[in-house]
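Good morning,

Attaching, inline, the backbone tokens for the sequence recovery test we're adding to the shared suite. The designed sequence is right after.
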């Protein structure tokens, strides 16, 4: 069950109104945007009266901060778990794990993913979470720089590497949750993300050596003599 299944009035009677309001706000923000959505609309989606919202959130800004914080926290945990499970001595696989985790998160929690990618949501993050996200990006850049120095990653400008990776992963995630690739369950999402990150990691230029994907064991054969090979 994903986060598009919004609890109704029963949630309030069980003491879960705050959680129900955040879930309702996820859908409302994705539909209306962080500026246009209303607490009345959130209350309607949650199946409660508008005054009930103010028992937990004094304003739209309070609710936005809670939604943004929950999105960041959930995806942060997903990415952290994925990196921890990746080979510690393979920086490219650690970087790849981040991208696969983002796609998996989008499929498992589409409402969170949509809401956190609405323009303006980053600015609604609590300061400590915004600082944590910025620090994570800095750590990724530092790890990639070291990987380039150690010969694991081609010496392409880091900003370009990050842009290409983010574009590929986020584009795939959006294509999946918007239904452009047909039905996609968790297993297929993982395969699609694995395939996309494999192409990103190997690149399109023919290689003079055979490359084996450490995740799938798929083999990219070495190129024949041609325009981009070292012996041309």
């Amino acid at each position: 069950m994903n986060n598009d299944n919004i609890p109704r009035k029963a949630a309030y009677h069980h003491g879960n109104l705050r959680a129900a309001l955040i879930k309702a706000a996820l859908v409302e923000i994705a539909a209306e945007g962080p500026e246009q959505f209303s607490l009345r609309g959130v209350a309607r989606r949650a199946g409660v009266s508008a005054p009930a919202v103010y028992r937990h959130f004094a304003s739209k800004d309070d609710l936005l901060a809670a939604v943004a914080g929950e999105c960041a926290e959930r995806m942060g945990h997903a990415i952290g778990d994925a990196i921890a499970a990746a080979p510690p001595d393979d920086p490219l696989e650690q970087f790849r794990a981040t991208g696969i985790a983002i796609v998996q998160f989008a499929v498992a929690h589409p409402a969170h993913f949509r809401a956190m990618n609405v323009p303006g949501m980053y600015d609604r993050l609590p300061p400590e979470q915004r600082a944590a996200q910025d620090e994570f990006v800095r750590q990724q850049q530092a790890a990639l720089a070291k990987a380039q120095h150690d010969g694991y990653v081609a010496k392409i400008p880091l900003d370009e590497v990050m842009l290409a990776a983010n574009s590929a992963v986020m584009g795939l995630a959006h294509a999946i949750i918007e239904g452009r690739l047909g039905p996609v369950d968790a297993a297929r999402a993982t395969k699609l993300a694995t395939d996309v990150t494999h192409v990103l990691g190997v690149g399109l230029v023919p290689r003079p050596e055979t490359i084996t994907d450490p995740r799938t064991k798929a083999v990219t054969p070495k190129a024949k003599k041609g325009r981009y090979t070292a012996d041309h």
